[in-house]
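Long-time lurker. I teach an intro course on protein structure, and each term I like to show students one example going from raw sequence to a predicted 3D structure in token notation. This year I'd like something fresh instead of my usual example. Would anyone be willing to generate the tokens for the chain below so I can use it in lecture? Attribution to the forum is fine with me.
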Amino acid sequence: MKKKEQKIVEVKDPDSKIGSWHELHEHEFIRDNEYIHHGYRLNFNSSQKILNSLFMIHNETANVWSHLLGVLIFLCLLGYTVMWLNIPSRVSEMHIVEDLKISIISSVNELAHSAARYETMFESQMHELYEDAYYLGHEFEERIFSMYNRLSSDNATDKFRPLVKKLENIIAKLDSHDYDWIDLYNDKYQTTAGVSRWPLFVFIASATFCLMCSSIYHLYSAHSLKLNRRMSYLDYAGISFLIAGSIYPPVYYTFYCYPSIFYADYIVLYLSGMSVASCITFVISFIPSFQESNMRWFRGVLFVVLALLGIIPFVHFCFLPQSYHFINAADYFALMVVSYLAGVIIYVSRIPERYYPGKFDFIGSSHNIWHLFVLTAALFHYFGCLKVFHTRQSLNCFAY
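-- Reply from a regular --
Happy to contribute to a lecture. Here you go:
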């Protein structure tokens, strides 16, 4: 009986604890950053222990909760997108100032373009007109006086009176409500309800999926080697889907209204091309060496290259007519790019823990900062997509 009890003691699972880098002999699968010295979850080899660690302080706590909060934020944005966007009356009230701003900017840009185009012609002909003006002035003056003398007779006045009356009737009819074609004054001609929201839903879904996968991976990474590898694939899948989903709203709304089938084909080309590239990147992540800590730079570069493919449709659109309508979203997209690049640089270089080993074990490490940059970039992208969406609502397709 004593031998059996002794045997039970021998197979008993070791106690779970928060350990240090030097205690990872049997947990090599969570050894990733030698500059993080403490906060490692040891012997958290059951789902119950893993879930309990959600409310503990360790070196993955900030990584888990930063993206869990991001999931909640994007769920709120999903509710906003479902409840408030694409409702004509609310759109008209909320975005009339934005529409006026876009109209003014468009008019100013067109005026500047026309002025630049005709400036050279005006300058070249000004000298000729100046020389001709002196000689034509006298002749013009004589003809004006002659025409005035002929029209001052009663017979000429009677001949022109029906024509003047007819013109007055036409002008009055154009000024009536039936011919009021200005959207600002006549709500029934509003076109804000015709733009689909599904590209926005695609991006929100991809962002939510990415953040959730990231949180799950960092939460379960200490469970076992097998589960660590499987969850890492889920994490890479989330990143790939986020990059692919991010391109849907900008491409769809900017190329939305072009009448030519040629441009519609480009929408399909860009969206399907980015989706295929993301799938290829995800497949590459299954290579065993892709998981190694010394491949950190390759993982960062690979996802950056995938994201940079989105520049191709952007450059294409910049050469299309009236692309300046969407300039109001450029700031948000620029901030998104800066956030992603800054996050990748910090993640790859492992700053600041590289210079202060052991000082950023629980919070403030490069991975923590990378998570915040990813969330910030996704939010910048969402607000940029809203700008593009509202701009598309305020533009009429026949303008192209």
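Some talking points for your students: Residues 1-11, 88-94, 179-193 have pLDDT under 50 and may be disordered. Residues 88-189 form one domain.
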